[in-house]
Amino acid sequence: MQQQHIPDLKAYREQAVAWLAEHAPRFAGAAREGRSGEEDLQLARDWQALKAKHGYAGITLPREYGGAGRTELEKIVFSEEEMRYDLPLLYFSVSLSNPVPIMLRHAPEDYRRRLGPPAIRGEHIWCQLFSEPAAGTDLAALRLRAERRGDGWVLNGQKVWTSWAQVADWGVVIARTDPTVPKHAGLTYFFLDMKTPGITVRPIRRLVNEPDLNEVFFDDVFIPDVQRLGGVGQGFKVAVETLMIERYAVTDESGYGPTLEAFVELARHSRINGRPALEDGEVRTAIAQAFVERQGLRSIHRRAVTAMAAGKEPGPEGAIRKLLLGRTRQRLGALALDLRGANGARFNPDASQVTDFARSWMDPSLRIAGGTDEVLINTLAERILGLPQDYRPDKGLPFNQS
Amino acid sequence: MNENEDYAMVREQAQRFLNDAMDPEYLRALLEAPGSFDGRTWASVIEFGWPAIAVAEEHDGLGLGWRGLCVLAEESGRKTASLPLVPSAVAAQLIFAHADRAVHQEDGAALVSGARYACLALARTDDAGLADPPELHLRGALLHGTSALTPFAASADYALVAAQDGETFSLLLVALAQPAVSRTPSCAIDNSRAAAELSFDGARVRVLATGNEARTAFWRAASLAALATAFEQIGGAQTCLEMARDYALERKAFGQPIGRFQAIKGKLADMYIRIELARGCALDALAALEQGDPSWLGLAASARVAATDAYEVSARENIQTHGAIGVTWEALPHHHYRRSRALGIELGAAIMWRERLLAESGFASAA
Question: Which three-class secondary structure state does DSSP give residue B137?
Answer without folding.
Answer: strand
